[in-house]
Design a protein that fits this description.
With about 290 residues, the chain is of the alpha+beta class. The chain has seven helices and 15 strands.
């Protein structure tokens, strides 16, 4: 079992407080005799930062603690039970390229047989950045390749619709390739962000979200933080959206994202659900 989670909001001290309040719903037991890896990626003062622990042998993993005392308005986190790739830093989510962060659940069926072909479609300048051996990291670079094909990779800000297009193209490519090899499509979930917006991919049917924008709840969350300005005037427009996978059963205040949908949010709006609708999957190029 893996846990994928993230938040995007407009107050740097709020997201970690919400994760703490939702700690019971986010924690997960480690499988007996099997260690896990975990990581969080976040933004502070214009920098993209990572905290990753590739090997954690505790009996119970509490993702809310990974972000404890962090002040950031955008974060992606992941807890990993390894299926492809050993427990080492290079295989620990989230993955980063420039301003982008990416994490994913699920395993691509038959990945070892598909790896060379998927690597072959990458632009030459991106390949050296692939340092691990997971299917998730390679999937991330396929999305970046699609952004490059759109002429968007060099842009500091990419519109949510353009990111959805790149994700849709990548999902279509991988599904088509799996179909050609009589393999099932990948049904994992994804979170990806450039620090300005966040897009979730819900293919498992088990991704959920919670929006916190009620001033009374926010005031209660921030009142325990002596450094927070929690006056009503400053909380009037505060909000944060939390997304997470494998949330079952659904806790109070959470909503289930539609299956096979994108879930898009910014600091001030969303989340907005849109069908993935893979109707015109591109053919995968042949391996050289």
């Amino acid at each position: 079992m893996a846990r994928l989670f993230g938040f995007i909001g407009n107050r740097a001290e709020l997201g970690a407080k919400i994760l703490g309040a939702q700690a019971e719903h986010l924690k997960l037991p480690a499988q007996q005799g099997q260690a896990v890896g975990w990581g969080v990626g976040f933004y502070q003062f214009g920098e993209v930062l990572l905290r990753r622990r590739p090997l954690d042998e505790r009996d119970q993993i509490e993702p809310a603690r990974f972000a404890e005392n962090l002040k950031t308005d955008v974060l992606i986190g992941h807890v990993r039970h390894p299926t492809v790739g050993k427990l080492r830093t290079e295989n620990t989510h989230p993955f980063r390229y420039r301003q982008w962060l990416f994490a994913q659940t699920g395993t691509m069926a038959g990945f070892e047989g598909l790896r060379a072909r998927l690597l072959n479609v990458q632009p030459a300048f991106l390949k050296p950045n692939i340092r691990g051996d997971t299917d998730s990291e390679l999937f991330f670079y396929l999305v970046l390749s699609c952004l490059h094909d759109q002429g968007r990779l060099e842009q500091r800000l990419v519109a949510v619709e353009q990111l959805r297009q790149a994700l849709r193209a990548t999902l279509g490519l991988v599904d088509r390739l799996c179909s050609e090899h009589d393999l099932p499509p990948h049904r994992g979930d994804i979170l990806m962000t450039d620090g300005e917006s966040m897009v979730g991919v819900n293919r498992s049917g088990r991704m959920a979200y919670r929006v916190v924008d009620d001033m009374r709840e926010i005031e209660s969350l921030l009142s325990v933080d002596p450094g927070a300005d929690a006056t009503p005037q400053n909380l009037a427009h505060a909000r944060c959206c939390v997304m997470a996978s494998e949330i079952d059963p659904l806790p109070t205040g959470w909503k289930r994202a539609p299956e096979d949908s994108f879930l898009s949010a910014s600091r001030t709006a969303g989340p907005h659900a849109e069908p993935i609708a893979l109707e015109t999957e591109p053919s995968a190029p042949e391996t050289e």
